[in-house]
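Limitations
The structure tokens in this dataset are predictions for the assembled complex, not deposited experimental models. Users should treat interface geometry with appropriate caution, especially where small molecules or nucleic acid strands are included. An illustrative entry is reproduced here so readers can see what is and is not provided.
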Amino acid sequence: MRIVLDAMGGDNAPAAVVEGGVMAAREYGVEVVLVGRREAVEPELARHDTQGLSLPVVHASEVIEMNEHPALVARTKKDSSMVVGMQMVKRGEADAFVTMGNSGGALAVALFHLGRLKGIKRPALGSVFPTSGNPAFLLDLGANTECKPEYLVQFAIMGSAYAEHVLGVRNPRVGIVSNGEEEGKGSQLVQEAYPLLKASSLNFIGNVEGKDVPAGLADVVVTDGFTGNVLIKASEGVASLILGVLEREIKQRPLSMLGALLAKPAFRAAKRTLDYTEFGGAPLLGVDGAVIVGHGRSNAKAVRSAVRVAKKTVESNVLDVIRAGIAASGTAEE
Amino acid sequence: MRIVLDAMGGDNAPAAVVEGGVMAAREYGVEVVLVGRREAVEPELARHDTQGLSLPVVHASEVIEMNEHPALVARTKKDSSMVVGMQMVKRGEADAFVTMGNSGGALAVALFHLGRLKGIKRPALGSVFPTSGNPAFLLDLGANTECKPEYLVQFAIMGSAYAEHVLGVRNPRVGIVSNGEEEGKGSQLVQEAYPLLKASSLNFIGNVEGKDVPAGLADVVVTDGFTGNVLIKASEGVASLILGVLEREIKQRPLSMLGALLAKPAFRAAKRTLDYTEFGGAPLLGVDGAVIVGHGRSNAKAVRSAVRVAKKTVESNVLDVIRAGIAASGTAEE
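Predicted assembly:
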């Protein structure tokens, strides 16, 4: 399998990306194509032992920066690592594309250069979300600020396919985010999407409130990109707030410091359960190609996980499952 | 000062509510009127030492249950503790009303029996939100699922007055929740509210993302009731997820158990920083009377805090400040 990695994307590029790519090539036995400025990528690659690994470098002279306007760059920066990398997927020269860069940029480049899967109205960005049980899969995280009810139904079909075939959840429970549990509660969008989801062949369990997402009540959590973005970023923020406050309070007390030292294995295990770097990247679902977008702050470990997610995405043929699900749902025709 | 407490509201009523009312009467030197079924309230009251405290019981034969439909009950349950209590405020027989009951019911009863403050288009439910610094004030939490841009401006005026006069924040920074920091990012609602907020006399700092709320970037965080509800409930859920996972991992390891025991003072201090029971109730802003709605799961300590919030709300004359702010803003006339 050949996975293209955007060596220039993310806050820690290219160093952490190259390091993560080397780790992934070694651990998962895949070919990792590093796309980016040759003069920046090759010195990083030279710092690692890559004997026996397949890590070709493909030169791309431009970089889509984190703050650039997505729609503009997709058309103009034709020699950027994102465009060059996705073109390889388009031409069948690679199986998947992975980036830690500008997620709006990745969406725009994917739409322009890969196009949508047949019948898909809007692609969505999804991510696993830690819960006390199996991680949930949440989408959309921001690809679509404004949504129509039928988009949410398609997100649910895509999310359900991903949860089942990539995450290994059998008959995933699908919930829609709302500000109340009962049917009839929620924004106009939720109220209109609810009956469509209920009528679908999905395992729809109804509304889920904000607290139900980390509680693991649903395996697939569907919402518009505005709400999903706020939900996941607030969750990240609350997690760092809690760990930060705890650390501050521990550091003020010598006995607590000692206690925290003794409890370190438990802290580490808890952190692992909750750590996004373990889960890897967020799939961009609904475009005609496997595209994984990692967190901009990804370290090497998170990059490695993103490549693992890409590998699983390809192996599971989830794109074919989505294609079939959309065709069978009747949502493609409207 | 006389504060009416809905003895029948909340999951732990009347026991925890009465206990919290007794604590508040003792600690804050206020008169706490307990409204509810005399036969349920008086036995609870008899369990406490109330010598020297003013804790009259006012009988109300009906109860608005947690799952009842707000609009219906406000008109029909005329002898419910919520209606009887708010009527006392309306007639000037009490200074504030506090309930741990059905928040939608409280809103409906307040709208019907107290009415709106002059010029207010929609009342909003607000709450403090823990951050690593001073708590932020977030509104709306669910009173208004669908909002118009001018509602958000009024929420910002009310929230700013509350943060300044009740929470003691000087010149509070006002942010609007969005899925991107830059001006122009966000839903149509956010994009339309942004210039209105920018043109106001408030200390508007622009968009805040989900992660910025717990980080304490803004003192007043304005959003529609759908997003606010999801944001605060997800935050609560993530907090209990993290503490739950941590506890589970600690309990699996004897050495970590010992460590956690030693670190207990730090844990306790951290929990205090993050604990909603310390902050007390959420004010219902924009109705013509001081109304505080506590968490349904409130224990006695949380009830006591809610009474304290009510007392501060009355003392600060924040309703007059809001009245003046709305009049000066020009948002009342449209």
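Some entries come with short summary sentences. For this one: The two ends of chain B are 36 Å apart (CA to CA).
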